Amino acid sequence: MSTTTGNSVERTLIVTGPSRADKETLIAKILLKYDAIDLTEWESLNQETAKDPDGDHPGGGGGGVVWKSLKDRYGSAQLRIPNHVIKVTDEGTEAECVILVVAPGVLLEEDVDWNKLDVLKKVGRLIVLINKMDWDWVDWSKEQFDIVVKEVGAQLRDLGVNMENVPVIPVTDSYGDNILEPSTKCPWYTGWEIKNGKKSGTTLLEALLTSYAS
Fold this sequence. Notes:
It contains seven helices and nine strands. The protein has 214 residues and is α/β, with parallel strands linked by helices. β6 (126-130), α6 and β7 (168-170) form a beta-alpha-beta unit.
């Protein structure tokens, strides 16, 4: 359920996906890219919990640590896009839009909360982010991207999702590729297109603007 505050509409965004697709780090990178948190707060949040030795983000710890600390402190996070304030969470089953984070070689059945995807039957707004495109063995391969699109698409169609209306975007949590601006690392990626509303774009920002346009 959306509410209105001032000139902005408050919405909810659920982010879900297998843990090995590293949705937590990607959420933190999205918040950083959208200025929902700054580097000072990033460092502060990192200091609240044990540092992730594998993290390669500003502040010395991993994005997953930042997201855990952010949830502990606030319960969720907010990001702002034009005319909207979006509550970002990885909990609950009610939202206007769902982001499903997947990755090459990661089975969707591993630990996805399918109840979160049931919300799609109500609102029909889904964005699929294919994370970890910069893994060494993936190296921004179009072939690996296409494999994930095919496998995930088949599973989502079984849930009744029309994939022609779903933006599918290759991204990285390490560098934030295709979150705010188009990446130069995937020249083969021509962007996403929603047949239903005749909308198209390249980045997550454009997909969010489209998803929350009504």
